[in-house]
Amino acid sequence: MKNILLIGGSHGIGQDIATKLSEKNQVYVASRTIGGLSETNIAHIPFDVLSENLSDKNLPEKIHGFVYCPGSINLKPFQTMSEEIFRNEMEINFFGLVKTVKSVIGNMEEGSSMVFFSTVAVSTGMPFHTSVSAAKGAIEGFARALAAEYAPKLRVNVIAPSLVDTPLSERLLNNDRKREMMAQRHPLKKVGLVSDVANVALFLLDSENSWITGQVIGIDGGISTLNINS
């Protein structure tokens, strides 16, 4: 049985990943709240990525898979955003990732896999995404460099979704008109589901798919690569 550690995994995509993985693995979720995990066999580690050090927690000695889920959606015009907003985005998305990876990298087993999250807005310029695109862009660069440095011991990949129906995106999808408008932006004419993204994370964590590293994989309904209106 493999040990899989998720940072943030009590809601949304992280919860779906953790729940599916727990069928065949020992899963640990380090997050502020236990959320939807209370009725599962998943081990919950109380942890706030912004204020605590993961090294102080009781981690498994050997880790075969690592997923960093914390993120943010802060879509505003650039001129209305303070420098503090940009710093906060970097703290939760990027520096939190760096800090936790430093804490677990020595525990990662030979052949293990790390999965991080970006956004389609890094590769496809979108208005009002300056702060989150900057933070997630840092993740993509970090992941590629980390994958190169730690090959062949471990694999590092990034998933870059478009809009997914999660608690984090609730205010963007809180009525039928918004939902339909967001769906129509994508060539596949629908908003992503939690399972669409979680299933790709499971694929990347699986040792059977061990010839994939340093990749940024778009799970975005085709919005980053297809222009069906041209």
Question: How is this structure best described in words?
Answer:
With 230 residues, this protein is an alpha/beta fold. The chain has a single domain, classed as Rossmann fold (3-Layer(aba) Sandwich). 32% of the residues lie in helices and 19% in strands. It contains 5 helices and 7 strands, in the order βαβββαβαβααβ. It has a 7-stranded parallel beta sheet, with helices on both faces. Helix 1 packs across helix 5 and helix 2 packs parallel to helix 3. Keywords: Oxidoreductase.
Write the layout of secondary structure elements.
Blueprint: E1 3-7, H1 12-21, E2 26-31, E3 43-46, E4 63-68, H2 83-104, E5 108-117, H3 130-150, E6 154-161, H4 176-184, H5 194-205, E7 216-219
Parallel strand pairs: 1-2, 1-4, 2-3, 4-5, 5-6, 6-7
Number of strands: 7
CATH topology (fold) name: Rossmann fold
**Which percent range fits the helix content?**
25-40%
Helix-strand makeup class: alpha/beta
Largest sheet: 7 strands, parallel
Work out the helix count: 5
Element-by-element helix/strand order: EHEEEHEHEHHE
CATH class: Alpha Beta
Radius of gyration: 17 Å
Quick one: overall form?
globular
- Percent strand: 15-25%
Main sheet: strand order: 3-2-1-4-5-6-7
Measure the end-to-end span.
Answer: 50 Å
In CATH, the architecture is 3-Layer(aba) Sandwich
Tally of distinct domains: 1
pLDDT averaged over residues:
94
